[in-house]
Structure formats: C-alpha cells, structure tokens
Amino acid sequence: MLTRRRFIQAGLTVALGSILTGYGGYRLSASLQGTREALAALRASRTPLALLEGYREFRGVIHAHTRLSHDSHGTPAEILSAASDAKLNFLVTTDHYTPDIFTEGMQGLQENVVVTRGVEAPLGCTRDRGLGRRCGAVLAFGLRDPFNPDAFGRGKPLFDAIHDQGALAIIAHPRGAPDAAYFEWADGMEIYDIADIMRDRLVEVPRYLLDFLLAHAEYQDELFVSIVERLNWHLRQWDRLTRMRRFVGIAGNDAHQNLAIFGLHVDPYPLIFRALNTHIVVPTETSEALVILDPPLSEGRLLAALRAGRVFSSFNLLADASGFHFVARRGDAGQILGVIGDQVGMQEGTVLIVRSPVPGELVLLRDGFPVSRTVGRSLSYAVDRPGVYRVEVSLRVMDRWRPWIFANPIYVRG
Ligand SMILES: [Zn+2]
To answer: Would you call 272 helix, strand, or coil by DSSP?
Structure first.
C-alpha cells in the first residue's frame, strides 16, 4: 500500500542515517559467506527421491501482484520470465481489486505456467498506524466470474460470495485480521508471508538493512536466507484451527517487486519466486483401459489440490524440496492410506512416513505438539491415537536450524 510504503521508506532513511553514524568502521558480516558454503554443502547432500506411487508433484507460487495492483508495476513478461527461471508449474495472482483483473489479468496456460487469477480483499487492521501496521486480507482465487469484493462488505457475505463462485478463501496477513470469525469462514490461511517478514526485518533489524545495502548485489540469496524464521504465532493459530476441521496452510510469496531502498529492489520477482514455493500433490488418473495417465496440470487440478490441502511449502533457496513426502501407510512399506491433506480412519498398523531429499531435522507434530523428532532423511511413526499430524523439516545452516518445509496435516480420525 502506498501509505505503508512511504512510511517504510521514511523509517528506513532515518534508521540508515543512525546506523552509518553509529557503526563507523563497518565490515560486512562474515556469516554471508559462511551461509553460502553451508547451502552449497546442503545441496550437494541432496538425493532425488522416487515419486510417490499414484501421485505427481507440481511447484508454484501463491499470492503475487502484477501491474493491475496499485502497488506493483510487474508486467506479464517479467513475471512469466521470473516464473520460468524459478521452474514454476503454476502461479496464483492475487491483485488488489480492479475490474481489469477480469479483462486483462493473465489466466490459464501462459507459456509453461498455469496461471489462476484472483483478488486480495482487505479485512481491516489490528494495528493501522505507522511502521508496525498490520492489516488482514482474504485471497479469493478460482473465481468463475468477475468478482468485486467491495459489493459484499467485510463480513460473512464476502466469504459466501467467494464460495458461491466455487473459489477458495485464504486469510492473508493473518495477524492483521481483526475478527476471529474470519478464520471460521475461510478455507485456510497464510502460515508465512514474505512481504510481511521483509518489511519487519528491514525496519526492526538495522544490521539487516546495512548488510542489504552493502552486500545485496553479491549475496542476494544468502541475505534472504538470513531472515527466514519460523512464525510461531501463525503456526499456533493454524494448529488451533486444524484441530476443528481441515484448514489449509499456505505460504504466501506476496510478490510485488515494489520495495526499493535507494533504488535497490529488495523484492524482485526472480528472487521472491525462487525463495519460497508451494508444492502440490496431484493424483494420477487411471483410464478405462486401466492405463495410468499422467495428465498435465490444469487450473481444475490445481484448485482441487489446494482445496484438499495436498500442499507443502518450502524455502527452496535453501535446497530443492521436490520429492519430499509425508504419507500414511498400512505398515512400513504397505499400501498408501492417505497423503498430506487427507483424512484417514484410525486403524491398527497405520504408520506415518516422512522422506526428505536432504538430511535435516524432521519433526512430526500431533495437534501442534512434537511427538517424534529425528535428524536424517526419514522418519516413521506408528500411529497409536487419532489426531492432526503434520511435519516440519529444518536444515542446519551454520550454527542454526532454518525452517525449510511445512507440510499440511494428515488428519487421523477416531
Ligand atoms: Zn498481497
């Protein structure tokens, strides 16, 4: 938003002035080079995993703004070029509302990327002044017809109107959503939002701002990795909601390419698209002749996977997470009973299995609490009671575990 941007720019200029005066003989943090070496080692330790039988995986980005938003100038050409460089299979655009979204917005297969257009509609704020401004929104995508959120206010009729169009309603910037009821009406929430984090770090951590100014050309990726943190509030809220029903957790890129400090772009599309990806798991299909079909990704399959919570999010700047899986099987190597997002009945012999292409810290949580933790490439856990089971994977980068993968739950019902 324009006002927010202006606040940020003003704040940053003041902050920078005080840092440069205070630091005197500043030297670039050695940790950026260390991070680079640690990431190279992680990538070298990656072993591709066999595809999960019966499923395919696709990679994309959710929550991107284009020039149709008042706060972005991104053209289709530069967005598609960044999407292709990041090897995306899909992109969900969520511009701030303008009727042009439905006449000029990208939609359908664009080059090799399936694009679904949507709208980001404001829900009000929990703090609406200054640099710490926090305002919630709902992302509506998968809309059949042109949709003007302003016609429905900010209450339940807005969510009903989204659902009437067969679309998904995902709460963005959830800490800013001023009414708990929004979460009851929505299908899911952002468990991460890059724009929120970048803004907070730039404003609150002078060291990051200075590193950015001095090292951004050489260490763009490492600077990004240095701000990746687990968002405890978001994850607690998500765990609270999944205990009641399926509630999809999505990491939002919130790409604008609009935040610049002294002319340097902090959030260029190519970086933001590579930094964080949404991976979806799509079942293969079987023809009448019992031949396994590998259909290409379509908007319909994309939306079905998102709705079903067959989603994991990954900070792929650390390492490529494709091939990761979390499944429920009958016994260690038996039939698949369910994948992420699925509900499975509690039965004897159910084992939850996690496989990671890179060795890391694998944590299995039940109803928000860790029940199993291991360092390595795989974890298996004999289920002894119903619950909402989800997985986080972190990777060791220098002296710290950095969050890497957040997988949606498997819901084991009694
Ligand atoms: Zn946005």
So the answer is: helix
CA of 94 to the centre of ligand 1 (A): 7
Cα separation, 48 vs 116, whole angstroms:
29
pLDDT digits (tens, 9 = 90+) for 188-245: 999 999 888 877 777 777 777 778 788 888 898 998 898 888 999 999 999 999 999 9
> Residue 37 belongs to what H/E stretch?
helix 31-44
120 Cα–ligand 1 center, Å: 6
- 300 alpha carbon – ligand 1 mean position (Å): 23
Using CA atoms, how far apart are residues 114 and 135, in angstroms rounded to an integer?
29
Going by C-beta distance under 8 Å and a sequence separation of 6 or more, which residues neighbour residue 112?
Answer: 84, 89
| pTM recorded for the entire structure | 0.91
* Centre of ligand 1 from the C-alpha of residue 186, in Å: 17
Q: How far is the CA of 271 from the centre of ligand 1 (A)?
A: 16
Q: Does a structural domain hold residue 371? A: no
DSSP symbol at 50: P
- CATH number, domain of 146, equals 3.20.20.140
How many domains does the structure of the chain reveal? 1
Q: Residue 238 in contact with residue 191, Cβ under 8 Å?
A: yes
Distance 63 CA to ligand 1 centre (A): 6
| Residues around the ion ligand 1 (C-beta < 5 A) | 120, 254
